[in-house]
Design brief:
The complex is a heterodimer of chains A (532) and B (315). With 532 residues, chain A is an alpha+beta fold. Chain A has 16 helices and 17 strands. In chain A, helix 8 packs antiparallel against helix 11 and helix 15 runs antiparallel to helix 16. Chain A is globular. Chain B is mainly alpha-helical. Chain B has two domains: 48 residues, no CATH class; 211 residues, Orthogonal Bundle (MetI-like fold), CATH 1.10.3720.10. Helix content of chain B is 78%, strand content 0%. Classes of the chains: A alpha+beta (532), B mainly alpha (315). Chain B: This is ABC transporter permease.
């Protein structure tokens, strides 16, 4: 009898617990999410931006045609979701992508959203519009698009020169919001109007960015938050202390370095912190148009002298990834498997053996213990650049290369690289979408504006196009791996490591997902809520 | 005195004109303009887009024309538009001035109210333990960078009280107002207080050895009367000079203090504007600071005459 009562009590308790869990998991409406922002963005226009300092705070103002599922950390073709487009379909020849658009959506100023806005946005991006963007860093994404055509107010088609399945991935990026036709690009820089869950309130340079709930958001019941407020704090120590003291609900995404993460966990043990790859690679740019790096042997020797694990251990306490151009698995969709990676010269685990090979190449080029090669290693005057450059110089010593650090202010860095006024450069490359089309065409294609080293290989160009047209992911992956391997062997832009970084939030902040293969696509925040 | 005033005012104008040319040229000598920086941030450059933007911002014009547009605008009170925010520069600068002015004023007040009395005490008690202790304090004030002291204060307040004195634009309570302004003002003013203390002490020591002080004591004047009425009044001149100079130097300390305490004042804003090469903001703001500093020097010179009747400016 006693056991029956015990069972009954346990059953009642479990029902109570279950209902409590359900209640705790039920999103609550209201509250303002307080975050700090790491710096003051130049303006509020995502289409003109090339840093997530712009798209983190303003992504919530907008919608895309499609978007990556905001609650799945890994962006992949399987996680694409409709947003302003209700559905999409490819034409039979895979050269026409048609979107059926959502009806009844309104811009924040009350005007209706139609297919004309989609056409306006992409005409602007493709440089076909009367109005011009001041900067258009992602124009190359649409190089395969012939034209955008509308059919009525709620259907729009992208006519392509050739099949390009990755177009959907680029449309899902946080960098691809739909802009309204009736607001000028200049006004979008100072007072953006979108269709998204949050309306722009104000942006005070070096001070704050404020968004408020869009009460007419087309997704009923969303967003949960009344608003989001970013306080701009450029001093990282101050920002982290303020988070620890409870002034902020969340840190700026991926702003916490691995060593700092320990400090936060010790001072705010209840905080939830995640460490994810940022899809930013630290790499070496080589000026192969003039001596000594016009000699492929010296370039290869340098690439073979790298001890990538040492970089990762010193800078990230082991928490970073080694890979090629594409972000390595498991977070990266397209990165080479480890066994393939290790077949590339310089990636093998025996660093000493690699360096012996490198020394032979240096001797072949006329250098040795009695004749060292003096080089300048140029880099930006930012810790993320300077620190690995110092380690690089130290490692190059092992193969008769004496490096000298050449620190360049940000304003000078790009003009210096563009006019080829450097020998070696330590560079960071952020990828806004984990897709080979974005990375290959942007960074390695002949004539691309972001191909800093002017690497140009017509054979590889053909391979770029071949993988780009492949609709079957299983067939596309080996093609991508082969290209990635060739890029490393050509020492086009040797990749040293792929960084990881941390993000923390207070335990009452719910519904946050930090993307694991992109730092640019996960800030819609319409599902985020505060459990307090 | 009037002729001197007129001459000083004329010299002020010449100095400010010279400063305007130096500011303008220095900004152009610094490599890269905002167009370079915007495109560097985007990681690409399209020469046509770059040329368009330079034309839009007037950066394609000859330097003489650019200078003329700026200085004539400044004299008319037209500060132009910020290249970064695209808002009127004056609208960006003006709300930040009272914040920094409050901070600087409080820091100077802190400097004078702490530095002068402690300097006097240190001089009067020369060679005692108190004197040594105060000298250690003043030496540490000169040695500690204000950003370090600021971070120390922030870390201690978080560690001890779980609170963070971060800038509050609308303080509701006295405590909030105190945390907003007084703590950072103390952090930046500590160095000035230390300097003021040392100058007051040495100046007082010099005066205390004068014959008229001995005479005053011989006549039976009290210690307080001797120290404050006779000695301090005569020792204060170099202290005033130092406080005047410190007012000019304070802007340097405020840059880091505003950064550490995240105060949206003009000092931090200026650094950000320089980073972006936002010429309309930098030029006008530095000119405003120059006007303040030159005026402060002028006022200090005039105060000399007030405090020391022996000084009368004549031709």
């Amino acid at each position: 009898m006693r056991s029956v009562w015990t069972l009954a009590a346990m059953a009642a308790l479990s029902v109570l617990t279950a209902s409590t869990i359900t209640l705790a998991g039920e999103p609550k409406q209201g509250g303002v999410l307080r975050m700090y922002h790491r710096d003051s963005p130049a303006n509020a226009s995502i289409l003109e931006g090339a840093t997530y300092s712009v798209n983190v705070p303003f992504m919530g103002v907008f919608n895309n045609l499609v978007i990556y599922d905001q609650h799945i950390a890994q962006n992949s073709p399987d996680t694409l979701r409709p947003e302003l487009a209700e559905s999409w379909s490819w034409g039979n020849d895979n050269k026409k992508l048609t979107f059926k658009l959502r009806q009844g959506v309104k811009w924040h100023d009350g005007k209706p959203f139609t297919s004309a806005d989609v056409k306006c946005t992409f005409d602007l991006l493709m440089g076909k519009s009367q109005q011009k963007l001041r900067q258009n860093p992602r124009k190359a994404w649409y190089s395969e698009v012939n034209d955008i055509t509308t059919s009525g107010d709620f259907e729009v088609s992208f006519d392509l020169k050739r099949p390009q399945p990755s177009l959907l991935a680029m449309l899902a990026s946080g960098y691809t919001p739909i802009y309204p036709c009736h607001v000028s690009p200049a006004d979008m820089r100072t007072h953006p109007i979108g269709t998204g869950p949050f309306k722009f309130v104000e942006f005070k340079a070096n001070e704050s960015i404020k968004l408020t709930r869009n009460p007419d958001y087309w997704k009923k019941g969303l967003p949960h938050l009344d608003g989001i407020e970013y306080t701009i704090i450029t001093n990282r120590s101050t920002a982290i202390l303020a988070f620890v003291a409870g002034k902020f609900d969340m840190t700026f995404p991926t702003h916490i370095t691995i060593p700092l993460l320990k400090d936060i966990k010790s001072q705010a043990p209840n905080a939830t912190c995640v460490v994810e790859p940022t899809n930013v690679s630290t790499n070496i740019i080589v000026n192969s148009s003039s001596p000594p790096f016009d000699n492929i042997d010296i370039r290869r020797a340098m690439a073979m002298a790298l001890d990538r694990k040492a970089f990762v251990d010193i800078l990230f306490e082991g928490q970073a990834d080694i890979g090629g151009t594409m972000l390595p698995p498991p977070q990266g969709i397209w990165g080479m498997p480890k066994d393939k990676l290790e077949t590339i010269a310089g990636y093998g685990p025996n660093v000493n053996a690699n360096r012996e090979e490198a020394k032979k190449l240096m001797q072949k080029a006329g250098y040795g213990p009695d004749k060292h090669l003096a080089v300048k290693v140029s880099t930006r005057n930012i810790a993320e650049y300077r620190d690995p450059a110092v380690i690089l110089i130290d490692q190059l010593k092992s193969i008769y290369i004496d490096g000298e650090l050449d620190v360049v202010e940000t304003a000078n860095w790009f003009p210096k690289v563009a006019r080829k006024d450097y020998m070696l450069g330590l560079n960071l490359t952020g990828n806004s979408v984990d897709d080979p089309d974005q990375s290959f065409y942007e960074n390695y294609s002949c004539g691309s504006e972001r191909n800093y080293t002017n690497y140009c290989n017509k054979e590889i160009e053909k391979l770029f196009d071949a993988q780009s047209q492949e609709t079957d992911i299983a067939k596309r992956k080996p093609q991508v791996w082969e290209i990635d391997k060739k890029l490393q062997e050509d020492v086009a832009r040797p990749i040293i490591f792929h960084a990881r970084a941390g993000t923390c939030w207070q335990p009452y902040v719910k519904g946050v997902t930090i993307m694991s293969n992109s730092s640019y696509n996960g800030f819609r925040y319409e599902d985020v809520w505060l459990d307090k | 005195m009037l002729a001197y005033l007129v001459r000083r005012l004329f010299l002020m104008l010449v100095t400010l004109f010279g400063i305007s040319i130096v500011i303008f040229l220095l900004l152009r000598i610094v490599p890269g303009n905002i167009v370079d920086i915007l495109f560097a941030a985007a990681g690409y450059v399209d020469p046509a887009d770059k040329a368009n933007l330079e034309k839009e911002l007037g950066l394609d014009q000859p330097l003489v024309m650019q200078y003329w547009h700026w200085i004539s605008g400044f004299l008319r009170g037209d500060f132009g538009y910020s290249y970064v925010s695209e808002k009127p520069a004056l609208q960006e600068i003006l709300p930040r001035i009272p914040i920094t002015a409050r901070l600087a004023g409080l820091a100077l007040l802190f400097s004078a109210s702490i530095g002068i009395p402690l300097g006097v005490i240190s001089a009067v008690k020369q060679g005692t333990r108190l004197d040594y202790a105060l000298r250690v304090v003043s030496l540490s004030g000169l040695s500690l960078p204000s950003f370090w002291l600021g971070l120390l204060i922030l870390t201690a307040s978080v560690a001890m009280f779980g609170q963070m004195p971060i800038f509050n634009p609308n303080p509701q309570t006295w405590l909030e107002a105190f945390a907003t302004y007084a703590v950072p003002a103390a952090a930046v003013g500590f160095r000035s207080a230390a300097l003021t203390m040392r100058i007051t002490r040495s100046s007082m020591l010099e005066v205390l050895r004068q014959d008229y002080i001995r005479t005053a004591r011989a006549k039976g004047a009290s210690d307080a009367a001797v120290n404050y009425r006779h000695a301090l009044k005569n020792a204060i001149l170099p202290v005033i000079t130092v406080i005047g100079i410190e007012a000019a130097f304070l802007i340097g300390g405020l840059i880091v203090t505003e950064t550490v305490f995240n105060i949206p004042g003009v000092a931090r804003f200026l650094v950000e504007a320089i980073r972006w090469r936002d010429y309309p903001i930098v030029q006008n703001l530095v000119m405003l600071i120059a006007v303040v500093v030159v005026s402060a020097n002028f006022i200090v010179d005039m105060l000399y005459a007030v405090f020391d009747p022996r000084i009368r400016y004549t031709d």
